[in-house]
Design brief:
This protein is mainly α. Helix content is 64%, strand content 7%. Helix 5 packs antiparallel against helix 6.
C-alpha cells in the first residue's frame, strides 16, 4: 500500500495528508473545507476515483458524504512515520559516535539539532562537524 502512495500525484498525496488529520466532507458538500486546506476542489474531484479504487480513501454517505482514510491506509501512514523516525533515531545514535570522538561542542550541537529534526542527513551532520562548522 505504501508503495502506491509514492506513485500518486501531488494533489492526491496532499489530500491523503489532509485526510490523515481529519475526515472531510465531499468537495460538493463543503468546498470551503478544501480551500482552507489549499486544495483545489477540481483536483480533488479528479483525484478521488483513483484513491477510492485503490482502497486508500472511503466515502460514507451520511450527511451529504464524508471522505476518510481507510484503516489500511491510516495504518500504512503510521508505519511509514515509524520507519522514518526509526531511521532518524539511528542516524542520531550514529552521530553520537562521531561526536564522542572529540568534536567541537557548538558545531556538534548545531548538526545534532538539524539531524534530529530531519533537515540534514547523517552525512551532512558529520561533514559539518569535520569542517568545524564552516563548510
Amino acid at each position: 500500500m505504501l508503495v502506491l502512495t509514492g506513485h500518486l500525484s501531488p494533489p492526491q498525496q496532499h489530500l491523503l495528508r489532509e485526510l490523515d488529520l481529519c475526515d472531510l466532507p465531499t468537495p460538493e458538500a463543503a468546498p470551503e473545507s478544501y480551500t482552507a486546506r489549499d486544495l483545489d476542489t477540481h483536483e480533488v474531484r479528479d483525484a478521488l476515483p483513483t484513491l477510492l479504487l485503490a482502497g486508500l480513501v472511503e466515502q460514507r454517505d451520511d450527511d451529504g458524504g464524508t471522505l476518510r482514510l481507510t484503516p489500511v491506509e491510516a495504518a500504512a501512514l503510521r508505519a511509514a512515520e515509524c520507519d522514518e523516525l526509526t531511521a532518524r533515531l539511528s542516524a542520531v545514535a550514529s552521530f553520537a559516535n562521531t561526536v564522542s570522538r572529540g568534536a567541537a561542542p557548538r558545531p556538534a550541537g548545531y548538526a545534532l539539532n538539524r539531524l534530529a529534526e530531519g533537515t540534514w542527513t547523517l552525512e551532512q551532520a558529520e561533514a559539518h562537524v569535520r569542517t568545524g562548522g564552516g563548510e
